[in-house]
Predict the 3D structure of the following.
Amino acid sequence: MKNTSINVLMVCLGNICRSPLAEGILKSKLDSKKYNIDSAGTANYHQGKSPDPRSVAVAKKNGIDISKQKAQQFKTKHFEMFDFIFVMDLENYHNVLELATSEADRRKVRLILNEFFPNDDAEVPDPYYGGDAGFDHVYSLLESACQKIANRI
Ligand code: 4NP
């Protein structure tokens, strides 16, 4: 990781559905020389796995390749490595904050949809147990949020 870059971490539960999409979408909008973008999950049960095929498919449909990503678990060390930590829902927001060790850590954490719907505390729904339409919906929410992030960051 380059010290000069701005570091952004996307976080969901499993790091196989929502946050890999958020990582891929934001990467597609920003210069990789200036921005380091990664993702992680608060749970450990999918560590090392590729993204869910349904997330890979909806990304591909929109011209983005997320197939080479590998899941990792969110750890306290990530607070040092990243400047912005965007989380998909309130449960993950609280789980990430539990690992924070300072006010500076806590200030880095934001609910991603507040970038598009300020102060609403809206959540990106977990699409894992649903059908393909859920993945299209998640993609469209994350596209809107990531466009706002890319414009501001
Ligand atoms: P994600 O979705 O948090 O968007 O990656 C999920 C993936 C896996 C599970 C739940 C949510 N799971 O229960 O295995």
Remarks:
- The first helix runs from residue 18 to 29.
- The mean pLDDT is 96.
